[in-house]
């Protein structure tokens, strides 16, 4: 008897909650769900990108003359950063509201990619000051474009 009354109470609670949600119009649309999923992906991805960027730049040390200290740690951190960049470049599930912002992200990731390419060249020839300056420029550009992406995502979230 006790089990039956608990089931009846649970059923009543579920029906009441469903009716309240339906009446309040809280059934999320497919678009809202896609946007929420994208926002969650952005948060996770930005955390991962930031960590990989910091790990790489911590190893990207100059001797003050435009010559980097090429070592295994920098090589490993550069490869890890490149993997995270590629993950962002291949991500395809972007809701319509975020298309423009996602293009900003991809542009920033391409700048990071150019910087990484030059860091990889520097690992082979660490005394190339022009490569060092160019790599630094591309990494800074990627950082600025990624920051613009984050700002755009914030604006979109506030407007909805």
UniProtKB/TrEMBL annotation:
Q: Which N-terminal stretch is annotated as signal sequence?
A: 1-19
Which superkingdom is the protein from? Bacteria
Listed A to Z, the keywords are: Signal
Name this polypeptide is given: Lipoprotein
């Amino acid at each position: 008897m006790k089990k039956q009354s608990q089931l009846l109470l649970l059923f009543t609670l579920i029906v009441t909650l469903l009716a309240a949600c339906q009446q309040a119009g809280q059934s999320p649309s497919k678009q809202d769900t896609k946007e929420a999923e994208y926002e969650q992906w952005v948060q996770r991805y930005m955390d991962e990108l930031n960590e990989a960027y910091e790990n790489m730049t911590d190893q990207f040390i100059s001797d003050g003359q435009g010559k980097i200290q090429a070592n295994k740690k920098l090589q490993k951190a550069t490869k890890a950063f490149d993997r995270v960049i590629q993950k962002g470049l291949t991500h395809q599930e972007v809701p319509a509201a975020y298309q423009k912002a996602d293009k900003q992200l991809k542009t920033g990731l391409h700048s990071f990619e150019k910087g990484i390419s030059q860091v990889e060249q520097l690992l082979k020839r660490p005394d190339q000051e022009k490569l060092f300056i160019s790599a630094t420029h591309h990494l800074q550009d990627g950082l600025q474009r990624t920051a613009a992406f984050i700002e755009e995502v914030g604006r979109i979230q506030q407007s909805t």
